[in-house]
Amino acid sequence: MDYDKILEGKYPAKQHAKRVTDYIRQKVPNATGVLYLEGRATKLLEDNDSEEPFRQRRYFYYLTGCALADSHVIYDMDSSKTTLFIPPIDPESVMWSGLPVTAEEAIQKWDVDEVKYTNDINATLAHLGAAKPTGTVFAIANQVSKKVTFLEFEHKNFSILKEAIEVTRVVKDEFEMAMIAKANSISSRAHELVMKKVKHVENERELEAVFLAECISKGARNQAYHSIVAGGRAAATLHYVDNNAPLGGKQLLLLDAGGEWDCYASDITRTFPINGKFTKESRAIYDIVLKMQLECIAALKEGVVWDDIHLLAHKIAIDGLLELGILKGNKDEILANRTSVAFFPHGLGHYLGMDTHDTGGNANYADMDSMFRYLRVRGTLPAGSVITVEPGIYFCKFIIDPYLKDPKHSNYIDQDVLDRYWDVGGVRIEDNIVITKIGTKNLTTAVKDPDEMEKLIAGN
C-alpha cells in the first residue's frame, strides 16, 4: 500500500456521513433531517490555567476529519451537505497561540461543503429546522452544549447516531487503512530501534524514551495508548505501565507500544531477550506464542467467527505447554476445564481504528465461560475490518496460584516444571491485521522471527 500517496487526499468525511445516514435509515425508515455533532471542547487542567492535552472526539472526527477544538458539524441527510463550524478569531488569544485556521483554509483542508464560524450555529439550526417541519435532528446524548438549541426541530433523536457511527466505523475505507498503515510503519521502526538499544540501557524508562523519540521525529507525536515497557516478571502484568524498573538480571523485555497518525492507532507488541539471547525456557515459550499467532492469522478471512480463532489459540497453547511438561494429562480435559486460561487469560485481540480498542466488538464481559469472558470481539469478522492478533502466555503467580490450589486444575499442572518458567514473565506478540474476503493483510512490519530479533539486538 502506498499510504503516503493515499494520504495526499482528504479524509473521506462525506463518504462516512453517507454510510452513517444509510445505517440510520435502515433502523428508522425514511428518516430525514440533519446529523449534528460537536468536537471536543477546550478544557483547562483542574486547578491550573493550562489546557488539557487535546484529542478530538471520535464521532465528530469520523464525519469531518477535523482536529480543531470547539468545533461543530451539521450534515443535511437530504441534500448530503456538510457544514463545518469552527471557532472565530479571538484577538486576545492570537498573541498567545497565533492565528487560528480560517474558514477559507478549512474548506480547502477538510471534506466539507461549507465552513462557518461557531457563532452561526444556532441560526443555521433554526433555519434548517424551519425548512424541515417533519425532519429530525440526530445527535448524541450528553454531547450537545447548553448553548445549542434544536427548537425548530419537531423530532429529536439522541440514541441512534452514536450506534450508527460505532457500527459503521468497523469497516475501514482505503484512507483509514492508509492512516493505520502509516502509524504501523512508524511504530514498527520504533520497535526495532528499541531492540537495537535494549542491551545498552539499564532501565525500562530509557527504552520508552527511545520509542517515543522515534515516533515524534517521524510525525506521530501522539501515542495511541500508554506504552507498556515490561522487563522480566513485570511482563506477566497485562497492562503494566510503571516503565521505571531496572533491567539487570532479567530475561525478556515485553514492549507493547503504538503511535497514532491523525487520530488512527497502531497497537504492536514484541517480546525479546534483554541480553540478546533467548534462554532455553524463554525461547520455548516464545515459539509457542509465535505458533499461536501465525496459525490464527492464517485462519482469518471474511465471515470467520472470532470466538473460534480464540479457541484455536488455546488449543495450540495447550499442545505447546503439554510438550514442555508444564501441563500434563488429557488435552481435551484441559480445554474443557479451562485450565489454559491460567496462562492465557485475555482475549486474542480487538478491533483497531480511531480507538486502540475500537468500536463494534460486541463484547460480553458477563459471559460465565472464563475462556471467552474477556474477548473484546465476538461473532463474525467483516472484510475491511482491522483487528489485532495478540496471543500470549504469562507466568503470573497471582493468577496461577489459585489454579494450583484447585484440584479441578492442579491435576493438569506440573508445579516442578512450572517453577522453571516464572522468570520468563510473559510473552505476547501482536500485529495489526486487515480482514479481506479471502484472507488477511498484515500492516505490522516489526521483526518477530526470534533468530532475526537476536541478530538485530546483537547489531548484525
Cα-to-Cα separation, first versus last residue: 28 Å
Percent helix, as a range, is 25-40%
What's the assembly state of these chains?
Answer: single chain
Say how many strands there are. 16
Instruction: Please tell me what the overall shape is.
Output: globular
So how many helices? Answer: 16
Major sheet description: 6 strands, mixed
Question: Given the helix and strand composition, which structural class is it?
Answer: alpha+beta
- Determine the mean pLDDT: 97
Strand portion, in percent?
5-15%
Major sheet strand order? 4-3-2-1-5-6
Model regions low in confidence, pLDDT < 50 over at least 5 residues: none
For the CA atoms, what is the radius of gyration?
25 Å
Can you describe this structure?
Residues 11-146 form the Aminopeptidase P N-terminal domain. Its EC number is 3.4.11.9. Its cofactor is Mn(2+). With 460 residues, the chain is α+β, with helices and mostly antiparallel strands. The protein contains 16 helices and 16 strands. β2 and β3 (81-86) form a beta hairpin. It is globular, with a radius of gyration of 25 Å. The two termini are 28 Å apart. 44% of the residues are buried.
